Each structure stands twice: as structure tokens, then as C-alpha cells.
Amino acid sequence: MTEKEKNSTDWCRSVGGVCIKDGKVLLARHTYGKGKGMLIIPGGYVDFGEKPEEALAREYLEETGVSVKAGRLIGIRFNAKDWYAVFMAEYLDGEARSDGDENSEVVWLETDKALSDETVPHLTKIMIEKALAGTGLDVMPFESRTQGSILYA
């Protein structure tokens, strides 16, 4: 990680996305931290000045080679120090591949297999289930006095 990347990253905001295509979900096998060796939904930290939807698209492309567009917000986890928002990720194009750094492999896995796989963490399974159920919040037209505001309802 470069010094510029360290200074531009907001370590308190992160995103993930569930991309389902042809009955398969895109997962990446993590190479570090608590998720090392686990198949998780791609995502990462939001840069300062970046919208969560933009961060999702950037992180997906960097980590997997796949271009996505953020859709419905299907989950958000808050704690005392940060938040993590999960979106449906609409597949646009690209071939799945590992970034050779943050993940060791990127795979399209049958959704039912992902839900029963021991290397898929509980939070990832919950988000896959939410994506399959079609639940969540949609982006709504909204005018705000705060530039760049987005409403999910």
C-alpha cells in the first residue's frame, strides 16, 4: 500500500457487494487478517470524498477484475468504531481473477454451495441470503441541501 493510499483511506467506512450471475455468487479467498483463507464477498474501505457506491465499484474491479454497479442496499453493520455497508452488485463485465495480493483466488460459486461451505463466513452467508430474497433498500430520488446526499428507503 502506498503512502497516498494510506492517507486517502477512511478506515471507519467500508463496503461489500453480493454479485450473483447465473445462479452463482462471486467470492474471493482472503489472504490476511481474521478472514484469511475464507471465501468472502468482495469489497473494501471507502476513500475520503468517495461515495460508498463508487468505492464498491473500485474495490470490485481492483480485487476481482469484474466491473459492477451498486444496487440495492441489503445490509449495514455498525459498531462503536466503524460501519460496513453491503450492496447488491450488478455484474457489468469482466473475467473473475485474483488480484494476487488481498485474495488468492476469485470464484463464481453456486449459491447453495456457498451457503453450505465451511470457508464462507456467517456474515457473507447472511448477505447472500438477503440478496437471494431480494430484500433491502432502494436508491430513491431525493433533493438535499447537502451536496452528494443519497437516500435509501
CATH topology: Nucleoside Triphosphate Pyrophosphohydrolase
Class computed from helices, strands and strand pairing: alpha+beta
Please state the oligomeric state of the protein chains shown: single chain
Specify the number of helices: 4
CATH superfamily: Nucleoside Triphosphate Pyrophosphohydrolase
Mean pLDDT metric: 92
Terminal residue distance: 36 Å
Q: DSSP strand (E) fraction?
A: 35-45%
Q: Can you write the helix and strand succession as a string? A: HEEEEEHEEEHHEE
Q: Helix share of residues?
A: 10-25%
- Would you count the extended β strands for me? 10
Structure description:
This protein has 153 residues and is an alpha+beta fold. The protein has one domain (3-152): Nucleoside Triphosphate Pyrophosphohydrolase (Alpha-Beta Complex). It has 4 helices and 10 strands; from the N terminus they run αβββββαβββααββ. A 4-stranded mixed beta sheet has the order 5-1-7-6. Strands 2, 3, 4 and 8 form a 4-stranded antiparallel beta sheet that branches. Strands 9-10 form a two-stranded antiparallel sheet. Strand 2 (20-21) and strand 3 form a beta hairpin. The mean pLDDT is 92.
Summarize the structure.
With 153 residues, this protein is of the alpha+beta class. The chain is built from four helices and ten strands.
